[in-house]
TrEMBL record:
It comes from Centaurea solstitialis. Homotetramer. Residues 35-494 form the Aldehyde dehydrogenase domain. This is Succinate-semialdehyde dehydrogenase. The keyword Transmembrane does not apply. GO terms for biological process: gamma-aminobutyric acid catabolic process. It is found in: Mitochondrion.
């Protein structure tokens, strides 16, 4: 264990040195195009979740810095929104090219501060960059309308215009993609942005911002502040100059932001927690179901809002599936994301491990059975064994709330109706998955599920070209696709009289 930790430290040092040499290792905030320390000089440490190493100390900002970031975004808005769509598109295209040119370095940075395996981290960079590419293209397609007039001397026009300054609050589980998915459409429409990345993973956001500067996005159009989350959040909520809040994170924080936005009547889009059911019917192709449920459950060590949180298996296939599933999970290699062949990294921190432990304990105490794993990993630190729990009931904590870890709770069901009832019995409604070979059933169940995203015989559903978002308490609005632009636009109706 000691050797492993020591070896990790040298690894950390060499990766950091490489990132510094190409100018992508920033530790200050970005306000009005200038890299800025916290005004009182305070810093916070960023840790590597696999080893506990301190990677960097970054500026710990608060209200004063956020106010200045908002002011700079507000001033930059006039110029940026007046550029032609083609000009904005060109800058975004440059940014996309730079993100792709540096995908290896950005991937290493994600693995360092977030822990996901390097291959998966580089995959996130490619995925994240596609939002910038897609919205560079969509920037030129913000179309208005002409409405046939009710009187001969009138002309009625509909224009779509950028809403203004956007506050973007992003989580630690996808330190790049959750930013690009918001900033891409905002900038494409002509908005300017103040980003607050997670305090746990700010380095990726700062590296992406450095590349945005290099791509010719003007000063003040994109600002980054991090540190005192409540102070920054409150400042974004209370400022009348911020016209829109976009947030990805927990439902509890989303509700607070929604309440805070009421004071200045801001537009809000929220992508909140999920409780994704993954329903495996008797008539499913076992290989397809195994591959899909493994992918959706254990991606990013179970730390995504669209991860399967409950695996519902029909009784006819229950034993066969759980045995095969447990065997497959047993073969998943756990470790430091820089090591060869690792598919599961650490959880983000000790609090995450404790939450997983408490959920597993609750399930076992109520009669569930551990089929595999069920405890902290021998690697120590923030590692948890990939776990499968059988005989789970929908009343258990692990079926009611997101576990956000590598634990797969399996629930047995009899009929299609029962599966739909169990699946919908939650306040969440982000993603759901079904595995069946019946075309009729796939239509019936897809339509009956109260979820914003449904994967049929497929576990990995996220793509920049499709709308991402949830029903019920999983949020408001959609990200990605042509629908993702609407979140950053106001509709203006112009009535011209005396045209006869």
């Amino acid at each position: 264990m000691g050797d492993w930790n020591g070896q990790m430290s040298t690894e950390t040092e060499s990766v950091v040195a490489r990132l510094k040499s190409c100018g992508l290792f920033q530790t200050k905030g970005l306000i009005g195009g200038k890299w800025t320390d916290a005004y009182d000089g305070r810093t916070i440490e960023v840790n590597n979740p696999a080893s506990g190493d301190v990677i960097a100390s970054v500026a710990c900002m608060g209200e004063r810095e956020t106010k200045d970031a908002i002011s700079s975004a507000y001033e930059a808005f006039r110029h940026w929104s007046m550029l032609t769509a083609a000009e904005r598109s060109g800058r975004l295209r440059n940014w996309y090219n730079l993100l792709m040119a540096h995908k290896e370095e950005l991937g290493q940075l994600i693995t360092l501060e977030q822990g996901k395996p390097l291959k998966e981290a580089i995959g996130e960079v490619t995925y994240g960059a596609t939002f910038i590419e897609f919205f560079a293209e969509e920037a030129k397609r913000v179309y208005g309308d002409i409405i046939p007039a009710t009187l001969p001397d009138r002309r009625l026009f509909v224009l779509k215009q950028p809403i203004g300054v956007v506050g973007a609050v992003t989580p630690w589980n996808f330190p790049l993609a959750m930013i690009t998915r918001k900033v891409g459409p905002a900038l494409a429409c002509g908005c300017t942005v103040v980003i607050k990345p997670s305090e746990l993973t700010p380095l990726t956001a700062l590296a992406a911002a450095e590349l945005a500067i290099q791509s010719g996005i003007p000063p003040g159009v994109l600002n980054v502040v991090m540190g005192d989350a409540p102070a920054i959040g409150t400042c974004l909520m209370e400022s009348p100059q911020v016209r829109k809040i976009t947030f990805t994170g927990s439902t509890a924080v989303g509700k607070k932001l929604m309440a805070g936005a009421a004071e200045t009547v801001k537009k809000v889009s929220l992508e909140l927690g999920g409780n994704a059911p993954c329903i495996i019917f008797d008539d499913a192709d076992l290989e397809v179901a195994l591959k899909g449920s493994l992918a959706t459950k254990f991606r990013n060590t179970g730390q995504t809002c669209v991860c399967a949180n409950r695996i519902l298996v029909q009784e006819g296939i229950y034993e066969k599936f759980t045995n095969a599933f447990s065997k497959a999970v047993q073969n998943l290699k756990v470790g430091n994301g820089f090591d060869e062949g690792v598919v599961l990294g650490p959880l983000i921190n000790e609090a995450a491990i404790q939450k997983v432990e408490s959920f597993v304990q609750d399930a076992i105490s109520k009669g569930a059975k551990t089929l595999l794993g069920g405890k902290r990993h021998s690697l120590g630190m923030n590692f948890y064994e990939p776990t499968v729990i059988g005989d789970v009931k929908n009343e258990m904590l692990i079926a009611r709330q997101e576990v956000f870890g590598p634990v797969a709770p399996v629930i047995r069901f009899k009929t299609e109706e029962e599966a739909i009832q169990i699946a919908n019995d939650t306040n969440a409604g982000l993603a759901a998955y079904i595995f069946t070979n019946s075309i009729k059933r796939s239509w019936r169940v897809s339509e009956a599920l109260e979820y914003g995203i449904v994967g049929v015989n497929e576990g990995l559903v996220s793509t920049e070209v499709a709308p991402f978002g949830g029903f019920k308490q999983s949020g408001l609005g959609r990200e990605g696709s042509k629908y993702g632009l609407d979140e950053y636009l106001e509709i203006k109706y112009v009535c011209m009289g005396n045209m006869g």
